[in-house]
Amino acid sequence: MDTPPIFPGFAGQAITAIQIMVVATSFSNESNPKTRTQYSKFSQVAEKSSTWPSRLAMMVIYTPAFVASTSILALGMLGIDCPGTPVIPQPSLAACLCTVHFLKRCLEVLLLHKYSGRTDRGTPTTISVYYTLVAVLIAYAAGRADLDHEAAMTHMIVGTAIFSVGIAGNFYHHYLLAKLRDVTKENNENKKYVAPKGGLFSFVACPHYLFELLGWLGIAIASHHLNVFLLCAGMTSYLAGRSVAQNDFNRRKFNSEEWPEDRKNLVPFIF
Fold first, then answer.
1. Helices 9-31 and 226-253 meet at what angle, rounded to 10?
2. What is the C-alpha separation between 1 and 134, in angstroms, rounded?
3. Sorting pLDDT into bands at 50, 70 and 90, what band is 87?
4. 216-235, pLDDT tens digit by residue?
5. What are phi and psi of 266, to 5 degrees?
6. Maximum separation of any 2 CA atoms in the chain, in Å
7. What angle do helix axes 93-111 and 149-180 make, rounded to 10 degrees?
C-alpha cells in the first residue's frame, strides 16, 4: 500500500507544522465561549458600521474559495501557466470535489438558508482567506499525487462515494434547518429558535457537521495526500468544537423535552 506523500522541503514542513497546530488547538478554541469564532448565532457585534448582513458575510466566506478552485481547474485543463507563479497543477478529482463543495455552499447561502442578523467584517474575511488557501492546497496536493492506475481508481471510487454521502447528508440537514428557521422580514429582532427535528437531529446536535466531515474525508481519500488528510483532521477538530458549542446553546435555549440533556454533539451514541 502506497504511503500518502507530504509537501517537501522547508515550505512543506512549515505548512505541515501549521496544520498540526490547527488540529491541536481548534477543538478547544471553538468549544470555549471566549475564543470561538464569532459568526452565525455566536456572532457578537456592537456597531452596524463595522458589520455585513449575514448572507453577504457567508458569501464572502465561500465565494473566493470557489473562484480559486474553479480557476486552478480551468487553467490546468487548458494547460495554461501564469508567468511568475508556481506551475499550475494538473486537474484532479479531489480538486473537482472541492469545487463542488464550495459551489454547493454558495448556492445554499443564496437559495436555501435564511438569515436575519449581522456579522463583523473581520471574521468572514479571515475564514475566507483560510478556505481559499484550503482550495489551493487541495489542488496542488492532489494534482501532484503519484499512484499507479489501479490504486488511483480505488481511491477515486471510495473517495467519491464517501464525498457523495457527505454532501447529500449535509444538504438534507441544512434543508431541515432552513424549514425550521422562522425569520420575520419586517423585524429582524423578532425571531424564534425552534429545536431541530428529523434526520439525525434526534441523536446529535450537528449532523450537518458530521456529513460535512464525511465530505472532507472523501476529498482526502481521493487526493491520497497526507496534507489533505491533515486538512480533514483540522476540519474535524474545528467542527467538533463547534458542535459542543451548538449543543450547549441548544440545552440553554430549549427545555429537556425539546432537547434531551444526553443528546450527543456530533457522532450518534459516541460524541
1. 10
2. 26
3. confident
4. 999 999 999 999 999 999 99
5. -135, -45
6. 62
7. 10
- Which cell is 153 given? 481508481
**Residue keyed to cell 496542488:** 140
pLDDT in tens, 139-193: 999 976 666 677 789 999 999 999 999 999 999 999 999 988 754 343 444 456 7
In order, the DSSP letters of the chain are -PPPP---HHHHHHHHHHHHHHHHHHHHHHHSTTTS---GGG---S-GGGEEEHHHHHHHHHHHHHHHHHHHHHHHHHT---TTSPPPPPP-HHHHHHHHHHHHHHHHHHHT-----EEESHHHHHHHHHHHHHHHHHHHHHTT----HHHHHHHHHHHHHHHHHHHHHHHHHHHHHHHH-EE-TT-TT-EE-----SGGGGTBS-HHHHHHHHHHHHHHHHHT-HHHHHHHHHHHHHHHHHHHHHHHHHHHHS-TTTS-TT-BSSSTTT-
Give me 230's grid cell: 491533515
- Closest CA relative to residue 58, chosen from 7, 148, 125, 150: 125
Adjacent-strand bridge partners of 120: 51
Contacts 24+ apart (CB under 8 A), 261-269: 263/203, 263/204, 263/205, 264/203, 264/204, 264/205, 265/204, 265/205, 265/206, 265/240, 266/204, 266/205, 266/206, 266/209, 266/210, 266/239, 266/240, 267/204, 267/210, 268/200, 268/203, 268/204, 269/203
CB proximity list for 221: less than 8 A, separation 6 or greater: 155, 158, 159, 162
User: Within 13 Å, how many C-alpha atoms sit on residue 239's CB side?
Assistant: 20
Q: pTM of the entire structure?
A: 0.90
